[in-house]
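Mods, move this if it's the wrong board.
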Amino acid sequence: MNPNKALWEKGDFTRIAESMRQSGAGLVAQLGISKGMEVLDLGCGDGTTAIPAAKLGANVLGVDIASNLVAAGNRRAKEEGLDNITFREGDATELQGLDDQRFDLVVTIFGAMFAPRPMDVAKQMVRVTRPGGRIVMGNWIPGTQPW
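Not the wrong board. Structure tokens:
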């Protein structure tokens, strides 16, 4: 098994994610998302940024390496009555099955920084972003505290 996958499936990250919901929604509100936009959220967890993007009318795909978080995201989307969002399992360093230049916006909040090969994630993000599209990343700066 992929050690990164095993790590993220060990605990219940949804408990931590609950404390980030308000900041996730606040970030998404500033991204200029509009109805019909194609949005990819990498390392999406259970939907901290993906669900608010879908609520704004975007067609959202959330990709996470942890199957438990994917299941939690799909559960949350169903509870919210959202049919314009899908969560699926995948490795951000190798986005299999995603077409080149598919997304208007690609977001990763802390997802890429935890990947074992962040440069591969960056290459994949560029590959799946349309010309003129945007990539938004949230990363901790080495030597600082994230809170």
